[in-house]
Amino acid sequence: MNDEEVDRLVEEGIDSVHALAFYSTPKLFFNTPFSLHRICDWQDQALLIALLGASRGRIFRDQLMIRGAIDAQRVALDVTSKNLPATDRTDLLKVLGLSTEVQAQLAFRFLADNEVARRIAIYRKAAPTTSNAAHPSQTNGVLHERGGASVSHGSQRVRGSVPSPRPSPEGGGSLRAPLL
């Protein structure tokens, strides 16, 4: 994320990683020149940091190759549904510094049940393909999606509410600091 992008987000009232993670995706899409895919990527990364904190988010990225909350949610679902082999589960808990089974169940259940990650995943799936990912302002208000279908955005204003999540103590960092 460059300085111009950060400045544009600040104009929308988004001045922290936490604010980015929980801001209305449609509102951000319709009020800024950013593509839906880019917004979802930023929010996905920001949500991981907001939920787990910057240091644990970095562990997910560096040691588990997980960039955002959507992928972390998939892992959490595997852990909570016992679909992960016991040795992999033990290694994962060790990497994350979770020393008891109760800690692991609480942490992974929190991630597995996260509605914001689910919402971002839905928006990401709805994002147009890269070859035609222009913002509606650059396509006369028509966004072309896969299969030739199109959705008219016109000058609609989207009203969205910002959920009131339980943030991590270290999850509200500045947008000027790089995301994962």
Characterization of this structure:
- The chain has 9 helices and 2 strands; from the N terminus they run αααααααααββ.
- It is 54% helix and 3% strand.
- Helix 3 packs across helix 4 (36-52).
- The chain has one domain.
- The chain starts with a helix and ends in a 28-residue tail after the last strand.
- It has 180 residues and is mainly α.
- Residues 131-169 have low confidence and may be disordered.
Describe the protein's topology.
Elements: H1 3-11, H2 17-22, H3 25-31, H4 36-52, H5 54-64, H6 69-80, H7 86-96, H8 101-112, H9 115-126, E1 142-144, E2 150-152
Antiparallel strand pairs: 1-2
Encode the helix/strand succession as letters.
HHHHHHHHHEE
Uncertain residue segments: 131-169
Number of strands: 2
In this structure, how is the largest beta sheet organized? 2 strands, antiparallel
Average pLDDT confidence is 77
Estimate the global geometry from the Cα principal axes. Answer: elongated
When the domains are counted, the total is 1
Read across the widest sheet, the strand sequence of neighbours is 1-2
**Radius of gyration over alpha carbons?**
18 Å
Please indicate the percent range of residues in DSSP E strands (runs of 2 or more): under 5%
Span between termini: 11 Å
Given the structure, what is the number of helices?
9
Content-based structural category? mainly alpha
- Helix proportion range: 40-55%
